[in-house]
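Supplementary Methods. Inverse-folding protocol.

Structures were first reduced to a discrete structure-token string of length 281. This string, shown here, constituted the complete conditioning input.
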């Protein structure tokens, strides 16, 4: 498997631990995930789904145990007003540039760090096209990248045409995309194709939860049996082998270990990969 290196030469760990929906268990689970071997953590400055400050608490506890900031890849997101409730980490009446600044600074404080490894636009304002507001937010994020405050910038929940437009218009095109990955959409084939052409790293989430039919498919069970893994591990391994960076949100220590084991424990043949690629389409 190739190392995952962004087009601006930043190496990203191949598997990421996601912190959504962990509520007051966030700190404990992030600590457990790092102790289990994860070195990349995904969060967002959005209290509806994430507890970014509790991710920071875990980082302090880990630092006390000797885990160095540089050994971790920290990714967080700017979420616009439409994706927040009343608890925005910025002044809702401020212009978008100021909102990004306030959200970024708040994330830095939550995570007790001078810099972020990856800063992600949680999603465009609409499902169709890019608005002026999206361009303004992106320009503010580009400033943080140019100033060296984040090594990577990216976008999430993006459609293929939106990603193409962003790549065409941006001064700094995204280095990563983070999307929900449905098998029925060819595992987000259109977006992944653009990523391939543009040299963007594709991060896939809900690989398990969005693809229950695939997990039940007898072909996947046959492959799992043959390689000595379980069907969930087969899906994660498949993701890795097609060049994706998977996220897992597991809350279970053994599952953390099982998920990471797919990096080294077994391989899929080209035939297996092709079979899984065609399931659900
Ligand atoms: N950008 C966005 O808008 C967005 C949206 C959603 C998610 N995300 C990110 O993606 C992360 C992951 O989200 P997700 O939707 O992929 O995952 P998830 O829903 O948080 O969890 C995956 C599910 O798979 C199970 N699981 C994982 N590994 C397993 C294993 N080895 N054996 C059995 N069950 C296993 C987990 O159960 P157990 O807990 O029992 O293991 C959990 O129910 C989030 O935490 C967040 O960081 C981003």
């Amino acid at each position: 498997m190739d190392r995952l290196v962004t087009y601006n030469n930043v190496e990203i760990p191949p598997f990421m631990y996601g912190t959504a929906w962990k509520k007051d268990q966030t700190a404990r689970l992030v600590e457990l995930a790092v102790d289990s071997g994860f070195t990349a953590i995904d969060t967002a400055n959005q209290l509806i789904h994430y507890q970014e400050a509790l991710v920071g608490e875990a980082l302090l506890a880990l630092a006390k145990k000797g885990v160095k900031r540089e050994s971790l890849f920290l990714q967080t997101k700017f979420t616009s007003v439409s994706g927040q409730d009343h608890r925005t980490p910025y002044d809702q009446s401020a212009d978008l540039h100021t909102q990004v600044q306030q959200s970024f600074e708040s994330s830095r404080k939550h995570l007790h760090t001078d810099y972020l490894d990856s800063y992600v636009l949680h999603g465009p304002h609409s499902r169709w096209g890019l608005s002026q507001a999206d361009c303004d937010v992106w320009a503010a994020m580009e400033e943080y990248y140019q100033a060296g405050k984040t090594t990577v910038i990216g976008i999430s929940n993006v459609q293929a045409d939106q990603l193409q437009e962003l790549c065409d218009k941006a001064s700094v095109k995204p280095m990563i995309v983070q999307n929900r990955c449905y098998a029925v959409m060819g595992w987000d084939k259109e977006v992944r194709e653009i990523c391939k052409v543009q040299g963007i790293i594709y991060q896939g989430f809900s690989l398990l939860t969005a693809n229950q039919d695939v997990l039940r498919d007898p072909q996947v069970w046959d492959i799992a049996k043959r390689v000595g893994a379980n069907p969930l591990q087969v899906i994660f391994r498949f993701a890795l082998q097609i060049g994706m960076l998977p996220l897992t949100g597991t809350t279970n220590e053994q599952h953390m270990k099982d998920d990471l084991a797919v990096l080294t424990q077994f391989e899929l043949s080209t035939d297996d990969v092709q079979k899984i690629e065609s399931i659900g389409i």
